[in-house]
TrEMBL record:
Organism of origin: Streptomyces chiangmaiensis
Lineage of origin: Bacteria, Bacillati, Actinomycetota, Actinomycetes, Kitasatosporales
Name of the protein in question: YceI family protein
Family assignment from sequence similarity: Belongs to the UPF0312 family.
Gene3D superfamilies to which the protein is assigned, alphabetical: Lipid/polyisoprenoid-binding, YceI-like (2.40.128.110)
Domain Lipid/polyisoprenoid-binding YceI-like: 16-183
Pfam families assigned: YceI (PF04264)
UniProt cross-references to InterPro entries, sorted A to Z: Lipid/polyisoprenoid-bd_YceI, TTHA0802/YceI-like_sf
Amino acid sequence: MTLTDGRYWLGPSTGRLLIKTGRAGLGRKAGHDLTIEVTRWSGEAVIAAGDPDRSWVNVTVEADSLEVREGAGGLKPLTDTDRAEIKRTLGDKALLHTAAHPVINFRSTGIRGTPQSFEITGELTIKDRTRPVTVHGKGNGDGLVRGWATVTQSTWGIKPYTAFLGALRLADDVRVEFDVTRLEPANGPGH
């Protein structure tokens, strides 16, 4: 796959979208650094390699589709019960409040660089609050595109999860990572 000019559809069949959390506080050894996968998301990207100003990307995430894939560290391994509890907590009013805010959206406002190294500025909307965010990305010669952005939860009114009377808490900054392994033309079947 090479990054050629065109309009492309994005989603779980073309790549992965992950959220990685860290721990803070005196009780951080008891908790886990989580890798959470977004299982239902979709988007479109227009690539104009010779004219990045004409390129854009728009991605929508179903807020209740976050699944815990991994828990590193901690005093004991992450169990299926832990995973279910974390998923329930993510949807809670204090965090994402998925019942009232079912989607998260990213819309680019500018793209700079080359297909090998680029920066996307855009607007991220979580819980009906829109704030700027910058995505850093790289493409390799085989067409694999990967990147990341730092999202500070409190900027969107999300109170980082705490336990043990605040001794264990998730760090306010989470890292959102993406890997796109193939590009599917947006005018293909079903699009």
